[in-house]
Write a structure and sequence with these properties.
The chain is an alpha/beta fold. It is 47% helix and 11% strand. Strand 10 (351-357), helix 15 and strand 11 form a beta-alpha-beta unit. It binds 6-O-phosphono-beta-D-fructofuranose (F6P). 6-O-phosphono-beta-D-fructofuranose binds next to loops.
Amino acid sequence: MSDIPAPIDPTKTDAWAALQKHYDELNAEGISLKKWFADDPTRVDRYSFDVNDLHFDLSKNLVDDKALELLVQLAREVKVEERRDAMYKGVHINTTEDRAVLHTALRRPASEKGTLIVDGQDVVADVHEVLDRMYAFAERVRSGEWKGVTGKRIEHVMSIGIGGSDLGPVMIYEALKPYADAGIDCRYTSNIDPNDMAEKVKGLDPETTLVIIVSKTFTTLETLTNAREAKTWLLDTLQKQGAIDGSDESKAEAIRKHFVAVSTNLKLVEEFGIDPENAFGFWSWVGGRYSVDSAVGLSLIIAFGPKRFEELLSGFHDMDVYFQDTPLEKNVVALMGMINVWYNNFFGFDTHAVLPYDQYLHRFPAYLQQLTMESNGKSTRWDGTPVTCATGEIFWGEPGTNGQHAFYQLIHQGTHKVPADFIAFVNTPNPTKDGDQDVHELFLGNFLAQTKALAFGKTADEVRAEGTAEWMVPARVFEGNRPTTSILGEALTPHALGELIALYEHITFVEGTVWGLDSYDQWGVELGKQLAKQITPAFHDDAALAEQDASTKALIAYYRAHRE
Ligand code: F6P
């Protein structure tokens, strides 16, 4: 049993009761953003925040001063600040795995060596020891000093991992593509579906390819299967090309030159045949979905260089410091987390859209899905007792304007209300004109139009005034009061991206703390993994088939009947 104090039931706090009362009053009066904006010329100022590279406008949320005040009170009553400080200090707040939660240590500067000793470990010194090794390795690959088995420089990196060992690196690789300056392109293979690997190796020359196997545990079925497949592909193709003679020594040398690994389990890495010299470690106190700023980001250092990675880390760190040092009332990270609680638990809005108006952020929603839903999609609290209220919104999204032509209909007029975060940057690396029209402005005009339409809507009278036939008026009315947060930045730099990721990590933390969750375990993914092992033999083994339920049996029968 953990000695972490039991979670405080949020529903039993004074703040919760006051929030419920306030919610009922607001609804009785009728919530109207239009009216709130008209009555209060300082609303936008009061609800806007500047944090380093990012500007936040919370004014189009369904909150007033009293709601915010009570939400802060709730955060205090459930001890968000105390748990945050405990997390930063390395207390084992991940109770079900008895681990510290120290992703914030991954971005502490080297000057803080010696200031954080956890379980006898100088955490910051360890982090920088691995960072320095990664930087040195990446520089050798980038400069061409590191050569493949036939003496050619590396031009492609194939990173193999899944979940936290994939989504973060892919998202950042896509986001920072304009910074790729070494002529090295990265591909990411995650799915155990053989089609993923088959497509990713297309056009790849193994002589110029470096494979990075990324797995915290080095036991994950998908990653290890793909790693073996990549090994076979690399060795067979090299042999076919006459690049190696196929002897054991030639194969071992090829693996040494073309395979590196990132893991907390360096013993298994060595057993796989990877030279321990080419393995980069991290620690059990880094959760998979919080690991992109550890050695898991190796492909990014190769693509963008150590300096850019340092900038990314400093963006994370600046947001960590802001979250820790800013009183909750003015702390936009805490407020965004608490507003999510407000929507989830009082309004019953159980999904949350993330809509980047930046094509480079096209994998950001997918990344956030793991971060938020693997962290907070839980029904049991950190002391093993059941949760007392709804937890974990469903996060989803697509980059604008693609989403506008797909699901925005539902966001504007559907019966579900979907709070949404709109994210955009003022400057683009690809300024473009269409005639006299700045295309980036056309793009951001859409961002502003959508957030305005969602907040203020369009009344029946406005629709009528356009000459719409009366029976069709209701179909064209937009009720408004659909909440959004706008996040703007100067440019999508490594530093700004680090801040943005840390922002959502801490929002997830705030919500998880209110709900009493251990946001750092993921037991919910285990049953499926176990059953897959049990079921897979049933495709060809009758005894294994006989043990299955009727539906599984019927589906396997269909498979057997149709498999060529
Ligand atoms: O999906 C479960 C999970 O454990 C994630 O939390 C993790 O990011 C992913 O699998 C990959 O795990 P590993 O890095 O150990 O291969």
